[in-house]
Amino acid sequence: MSAGRPVRAILLAVATIALSVQAETQSRRHGPPGMVWIPGGRFRMGSDFPAFDDARPVHTVVVDGFWMDATPVTNAQFARFVKTTGYVTVAERKPNPKDFPGVPADKLVPGSLVFHSPAHPVSLDDPSQWWEYVPGASWRHPEGLRSDLAGRANHPVVQVCWDDASAYAKWAHKRLPTEAEWEYAARGGLNQMPYVWGREPTPHGKQMANTWQGRFPDRNSKRDGYARTSPVRAFPPNRFGLYDMSGNVWEWCADWYRPDYYRHSPRKNPRGPSDSFDPREPGMPKRVQRGGSFLCSDQYCSRYMPGGRGKGAVDTGASHVGFRCVMDL
Ligand SMILES: [Ca+2]
Predict the structure, then answer these.
(1) What residue spans define the domains of the chain?
(2) pTM score of the predicted model
(3) How far, in Å, from the CA of 207 to the mean position of ligand 1?
(4) CB under 8 Å to 247, separation ≥6 — which residues?
(5) Is 35-327 a domain of CATH 2.60.40.2550?
(6) Cα(254) to centroid of ligand 1, in Å?
(7) Which residues make beta-bridge pairs with 63?
(8) 247 Cα: distance to centroid of ligand 1 (angstroms)
(9) How far is the centre of ligand 1, averaged over its atoms, from the C-alpha of 233 (Å)?
(10) pLDDT 10s digits, 10-37
């Protein structure tokens, strides 16, 4: 009899472990609505692509598992947040004159940056040729007051800045992903492939993401079917079941942006530098954006590739910038 007790104890312990694993598996299978479990792991972060001078060196990173929204946050989802909380996005607020010394008062009106396609070829060195500050542009009116969200409930919300995205994440009991989490999730287990779907830009001739085809920024052939944003499930998911990890809209990450961060970032769960620095616009605090957008073309911006990094001023949205959230177990 006495010899049986340890065996029973072991069996009970094994059964308990099996039950807890089963419970965890079930809880992950029935996780938060609209979210995908991203199992933790190790990957090679960064890119040797010549144009990505801020994505080097390629280095090994380990991230813990997390839940991630399967798609960018949609207009319908953001509308629920606004309706529930009364939140007013930064683009809808009157700019504070203290933040814009020297700008005439009549120019300090709510609005945001909108892409418009020039009528003829322009120098690619001058983004002011295709970006315009449009009064009244906001998430409700992505291209200005004459535009609205009709037919776009399932498109990603745009014209949201980092502060807006963070406010939504907090309300949803989620958070913005770290840059490392974002890239790990985007790569979907593929090692240093140029695209989130693999090696070929258009496998079997198929457009795999909403980017820009044709001559940027004046001629968009729309071979992928979309001149601006697309519904969040219009293109195939990656191997983790995540949609739009390439193209459609840039997505805010939690991290501050610095071009030199990869030289000394920690190996495990890096969370970004403690401050921001962009040599092109020193003094303007910026957070990381990832994934590229419908404006990415191989001629101008290939940063829809998973190693490519983007950045934006924390108070500035645009007609091609959105976000998605993550959640810890
Ligand atoms: Ca497109």
Answers:
(1) 1-30, 35-327
(2) 0.91
(3) 9
(4) 209, 210, 211, 235, 291, 292, 293, 294, 296, 304
(5) no
(6) 27
(7) 41
(8) 8
(9) 14
(10) 445 544 444 444 444 444 557 899 999 9
